[in-house]
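Many introductory courses stop at the sequence. We go one step further.
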Amino acid sequence: MDDVEEDPPTPDRLRAFAALIDYEFSDFELLRQALTHRSAAQEADIADNERLEFLGDAVLELIASEWLFAARPNEAEGLLTQRRSRLVSSVALRAVAGRLDLAEWISMSTGEERSGGRSKRSVLANTVEALIGAIYLDGGLEAASRWALPHLSALDVELVDEEVSDAKNRLQELLQGRGEGLPEYVTVGRDGPAHAPTFVVECRVSGSTVATGTGSSKQQAQRRAAEVALQVLVSA
């Protein structure tokens, strides 16, 4: 077996991490377990985070489902399901782990670390789920929701921005596939104060306005206009 990289985290270290993630645990044993990879648990003969991961996965899906249901009242079930899948995916959870610098707090064996364990998507995502499971057991669903929702909200904004950012490329590819010219983006308006402007951009194809988008920058307004144009042209 691999040698253990370090002893289980001390109470002071656990309190430091709890302060970092802005959650005050009543039972720090839950936090210790959430941060313990199975490679370290096997060597030290202590509980690992896999059961908490199982629980946290279910809790996170419920929290994400309830939040999306309330935040997007006009979206159909299929789209809500797609959004939830992306929000709770290992890619998204790894992003959460990155914000928390979670990799440095996970207890794992030397062998696991040498094999790149601290950067493995599965290890990071599973630890986030275990952390949510620990918070759920420590403070209940409301506490888990309060902790997870800011992360879900930030992820949702990023994912939507990714979708919108890609819209300009997809629109260009669509038009090229149809043998049409490139789209033109024309700024037709600007409202609001200088520190918080709102730009209005038209997306024009072959000289005709196909869609309009708004945003806090010209680039954002262009991307949103492209997204609407895609919907219009694909359904035409």
